[in-house]
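User: Hi! Is it possible to get a structure for several chains at once, not just one? Here's what I have:
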Amino acid sequence: MDFFDVVSTQRAIRRFLPDPVPDALVARVLDAATRAPSARGAEPWAFVVVRDAGLRAEIGRLYLTAWETAGQFTEATDADRDVKAAPHYGRMMRGADALARGLGTVPVHVVCGLDHARLGPIADGAGGLRSPGAAYSSILPAVQNLLLAARAVGLGTTLTTLHRAFEPALRELLGLPDTIEPVVLVPLGFPRDRFGATRRRPLSDVVHLDRWGTRYARLDAPEGDS
Amino acid sequence: MDFFDVVSTQRAIRRFLPDPVPDALVARVLDAATRAPSARGAEPWAFVVVRDAGLRAEIGRLYLTAWETAGQFTEATDADRDVKAAPHYGRMMRGADALARGLGTVPVHVVCGLDHARLGPIADGAGGLRSPGAAYSSILPAVQNLLLAARAVGLGTTLTTLHRAFEPALRELLGLPDTIEPVVLVPLGFPRDRFGATRRRPLSDVVHLDRWGTRYARLDAPEGDS
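Assistant: Yes, the chains can be modeled jointly so their relative placement is included. Here is the combined structure:
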């Protein structure tokens, strides 16, 4: 697939078909993940591919409990007041609810871990991070490569972080060493939802020229090259 | 370009040609950045495109000072002892040194910011982050899209975070609001270095099946689909 077609149609897929995912596609997607940059070229990533049905079901149960707890918190504190009127919000939340109820049967879970033992001076040696930006810059670009590569081979994904709410149980289930921080959990499977173009804020809302608040006018007329 | 060709040949470019970068390419690359996912679909990103020669020169001076200070620290504490024998290290460090000396004249700097005011409950409202993983998951995938899209249109980039060492001065130069965290600085220009395939740890070193330490043997023989 053309690169820009992949980027412009990669979107969160939260409903999946039960069809099994071939190992060859998992390999292709993980190989793409490892092409990402990392601080010091240390490649401080580790991936646990969960295919075992019992493990996935247990992760799904833990995730659903965390989802319901988070939903109660969001409702009680009106935590999403800033976005809940946005056009995407209702659809997104229905999808996220469907994911929480169906995660246990998504064919593959990929737990994307950051290995603090490979961060050198970026980690503080006591489980913390001296430079969180540099640390997460050494795992989240790999995750994005994974999401894009999945889209390129026809597999759906969505970037989730809710497992942090049940991290001790997840660590126990997967036998994660202390140095591995499970940053993202990616459900992976053939999509029941459709891929398709995403709607985004216009560039004029998010791009500034030279100094904050200065409009980059020529971005809006891209045929006028500098 | 084909998606997998882009992913497999995207690599850090640290030496640049002086040729100007057309606005249309900047727009294309930033549009790709905004296609990334974000927590709550809030798109909490903001980009400052620095084209002004005086600003770039000043950022370059600050960066070089930070680079030299960091180099002294690394040497004094042998902070890279875990990676300095790796085959990539010498070449990478020579490139990073060339970047530090040449950054001021790279045609475009893109400062990629995370807007804490758009993070809802993920930010703590006092400049900190309640869920750093979720927060950085809402800007670093966009940065990776930017790096890949640049490669797709023939522009070089590298993901840098050293500006955090002179963040107050950078904020002042660019007039960044308090809520904007400048997470990554991406130099952008036509490459003097070459694109090309990257060398990475083999998948068997970084992928586990179901539980940590269990080899995912079928990844090594991807023709044997499940």
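The two ends of chain B are 30 Å apart (CA to CA). Chain B touches chain A through 104 residues (CB under 8 Å).

User: Great, thank you!
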